[in-house]
Write a structure and sequence with these properties.
7 helices, two-stranded antiparallel sheet, alpha+beta, 6 strands
């Protein structure tokens, strides 16, 4: 594959994973649909990436955005102060994201609640659900998971279900996410399960448990 083709493939992958994660709020400013924090999309070291604007308030975000652009105009690096501590901070945060839990679960072949290997058909379904969950949930902190956020995911996901019944499909995907989060707790990537009071279910009359 050529360098150009590889770059295009990488760009397409980033676009797909970010499809549901960010909504444009203003010129150069985007809101994460899960956490509601505001971000920008700068190019750092030749690669486009996301940087938090450290607020959920659009007015404050615009001020920070303007300060960073002004620093760049002066030939300064507006992220210099962040980069020193960012690496350590990212290491602390990395394992706490839902995406990390989902990927670890898939990499470990989706063990069941007894840490046993799943039958091939069920294993394939779990891994397919992981891929379906990642675009929306990858950058969400488990502590930010709420019933309202699950409702938002449901409203988006049911519109895209091609095969099967939408509500039932969402229930199965969220069950996979619970399995992944439980596995993350066992792997010490997380300390506790989100929504201890219970997760929403959308399929009427559904009483299937895995």
């Amino acid at each position: 594959m050529s360098i150009i083709a590889a770059d295009q493939a990488e760009s397409a992958e980033e676009s797909r994973e970010s499809k549901y994660q960010y909504e444009r709020e203003a010129e150069g400013i985007f809101r994460h649909t899960g956490t509601r924090w505001l971000h920008e999309r700068p190019t750092i070291n030749g690669k486009r990436t996301w940087r938090t604007l450290e607020t959920k308030n659009l007015k404050f975000a615009k001020e920070t955005y303007r300060k960073r652009r002004s620093a760049e105009d002066r030939g300064e690096n507006p992220y210099a102060e962040e980069q020193g501590s960012a690496a350590d901070e990212e290491k602390k945060k990395a394992a706490s994201l839902v995406g990390d839990a989902l990927r670890r679960y898939a990499e470990d072949d989706c063990p069941d609640r007894n840490r046993k290997t799943r039958p091939p058909l069920m294993l394939g379904a779990e891994k397919a659900n992981v891929q379906a969950l990642l675009p929306f949930w990858a950058d969400v902190d488990p502590d930010d998971i709420t019933i309202a956020l699950c409702d938002k995911y449901h409203d988006i996901a049911v519109k895209e279900v091609i095969r099967g019944e939408g509500d039932r499909t969402v229930d199965l995907r969220l069950n996979t996410m619970r399995n992944a989060l439980r596995w993350a707790c066992r792997c010490e990537l997380m300390k506790h399960m989100p929504l201890p009071e219970g997760w929403p279910r959308y399929h009427i009359g559904s009483a299937v448990h895995h």
